[in-house]
Write a sequence for this structure.
């Protein structure tokens, strides 16, 4: 489009809007807020009637009046991230304003204590980089680090001889300065880069082989080095879901069971918000009332990280409500020490578990899990 | 080109003697790369520096040492040997790879970049997902009537307040524990009491 005609169209569009529109910001205008009544307590979901981007663009120029009459509000930009419980019941909200009980919940998490397991690609890449570094760096000079003929020097010499003269402890048998210096790649199936193997070699190397007098210690008289503990603990092996030293490289979430027998449901601790309290005050109180005070916890913030809306069940005549609707807003908390204790709780809780994200998917009701799953971390 | 480089590298390794510096005519060029430690090594042949400054330095040094001669601290000798190894002449040359080896290296490098990119994008996706969860929750909170007789959006306003969130004791010190590869002897303190 040549410049003159583009300018003309821009000017005409400006004139058109200035004559026909009130002074409303563009977002409000496209949302149609000026045309709807403010009685609706929450936005009417319009996921199914939401036009495609093409038709939305067309509506903006030509048929804005019809479109404004058709849709009351646009959904927030979260789009499909909204929990689907809100989209399922337009009938309850379009006609009357529904009262919801406000509840505050706490998603108490134990952060992962261990780093994640390295993928085989990562560990082999690290070995590759270590060997390249050997090729590029200056030779190791032990006399700079060990005084000659001391116990440490003798110990070093013994270990160096066992490693076939390779100063590095974790790169396997590779000498960058020898005749085979080019041969710095390990073969397929080699376990040189396995982190468990590397740890084993480091532990063996940490054992002192020479006494303080400079005499070599026999194998049965060496002082063993304390080995690092396994990443899988006893609670992992027993699958004890009430222990907190379980699944140490994943996040654990506290879930509690309400009720007994058939009616029992699992969920996060939550309670009603009274008029004189706020979300975070209620969450603190509810956590202390339901899981005890013997937990060193910290609330990450006062902003809810997830919410779950359960709509009221309306009777056949439209007035009776066997179950009132409720909105639960979840705050996020961290536990640093301690353990949950349901003894004497005031919320009718019968059991608790510390579950990982995958186990939550199996344990929680489907719509409940869908509402809160956005707050989960990767692991 | 590579042949000459090879020969040069071989020659430097064979004939590199840290004690006997090769006499060079380009003394000005060597001055720029020498560290003070390296210069101290050249004291027996200070005349290679040439000029009156070198002579004066030699006279001053001999006058200072007197009858001690060329005695040196063994620690100093050790250090000098170490720096001789670290000198640019002893550092191995850059990697030279044949064609197939270089292609393998390139493939590994690209695979690593791809891996990092996937990780990064996964992290970004998680952050976006968590943000959208918070956004939806806050929006629902803003549009809902407060508890009891509170007006619409009261809870939202309070939740947005930052009073007391930051500052001293805002984040507990226990939260600064880094993740480790293997657990502690007691992985979790179950008996913590208030």
């Amino acid at each position: 489009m040549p410049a003159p005609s583009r300018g003309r169209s821009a000017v005409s569009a400006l004139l058109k809007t200035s004559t026909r529109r009130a002074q409303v910001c563009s977002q409000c205008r496209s949302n149609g807020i000026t045309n709807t009544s403010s009685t609706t307590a929450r936005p009417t979901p319009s996921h199914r009637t939401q036009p495609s981007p093409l038709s939305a663009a067309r509506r903006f120029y030509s048929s804005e009046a019809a479109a404004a009459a058709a849709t009351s509000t646009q959904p927030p930009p979260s789009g499909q991230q909204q929990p689907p419980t809100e989209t399922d019941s337009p009938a309850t909200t379009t006609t009357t304003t529904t009262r919801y009980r406000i509840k505050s919940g706490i998603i108490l998490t134990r952060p992962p204590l261990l780093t994640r397991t390295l993928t085989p690609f990562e560990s082999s890449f690290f070995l590759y980089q270590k060997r390249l570094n050997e090729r590029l760096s200056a030779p190791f000079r032990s006399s700079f680090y060990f005084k000659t003929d001391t116990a440490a020097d003798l110990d070093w010499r013994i270990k160096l001889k066992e490693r076939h003269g390779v100063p590095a402890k974790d790169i396997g048998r590779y000498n960058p300065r020898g005749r085979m210096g080019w041969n710095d790649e390990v073969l397929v199936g080699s376990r040189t880069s396995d982190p468990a193997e590397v740890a084993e070699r480091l532990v063996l190397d940490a054992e002192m082989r020479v006494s303080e007098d400079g005499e070599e210690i026999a194998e049965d008289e060496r002082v063993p080095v304390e080995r690092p503990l396994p990443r899988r603990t006893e609670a992992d092996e027993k699958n004890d879901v009430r222990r907190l030293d379980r699944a140490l490289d994943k996040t654990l979430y506290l879930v509690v069971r309400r009720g007994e027998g058939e009616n029992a449901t699992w969920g996060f601790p939550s309670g009603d918000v009274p008029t004189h309290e706020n979300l975070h005050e209620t969450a603190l109180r509810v956590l202390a009332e339901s899981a005890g005070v013997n937990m060193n916890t910290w609330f990450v913030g006062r902003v809810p990280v997830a919410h779950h809306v359960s709509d009221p069940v309306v009777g056949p005549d439209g007035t009776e409500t066997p179950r009132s609707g409720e909105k639960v807003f979840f705050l996020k908390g961290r536990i640093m020490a301690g353990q949950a204790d349901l003894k004497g709780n005031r919320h009718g809780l019968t059991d608790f578990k510390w579950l990982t994200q995958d186990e939550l998917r199996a344990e929680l009701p489907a719509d409940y899990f869908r509402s809160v799953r956005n707050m989960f971390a990767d692991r | 080109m590579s042949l000459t480089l090879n020969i040069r590298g071989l020659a430097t390794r064979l004939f590199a003697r840290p004690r006997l510096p090769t006499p060079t005519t380009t003394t000005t060029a060597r001055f720029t790369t020498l560290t003070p430690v390296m210069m101290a090594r050249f004291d027996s042949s200070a005349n290679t520096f040439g000029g009156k400054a070198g002579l004066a330095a030699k006279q001053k040094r001999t006058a200072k040492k007197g009858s001690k001669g060329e005695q040196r601290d063994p620690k100093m000798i050790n250090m000098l040997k170490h720096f001789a190894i670290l000198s640019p002449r002893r550092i191995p040359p850059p990697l030279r790879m044949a064609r197939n080896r270089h292609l393998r290296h390139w493939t590994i490098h690209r695979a690593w970049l791809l891996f990092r990119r996937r990780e990064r994008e996964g992290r970004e996706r998680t952050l976006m997902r968590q943000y959208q969860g918070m956004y939806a929750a806050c929006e629902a909170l803003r549009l809902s009537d407060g508890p009891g007789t509170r007006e619409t959006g009261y809870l939202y306003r309070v939740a947005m307040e930052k009073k007391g969130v930051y500052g001293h004791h805002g984040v507990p010190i226990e939260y600064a524990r880094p993740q480790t590869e293997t657990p502690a002897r007691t992985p979790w303190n179950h008996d913590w009491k208030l």
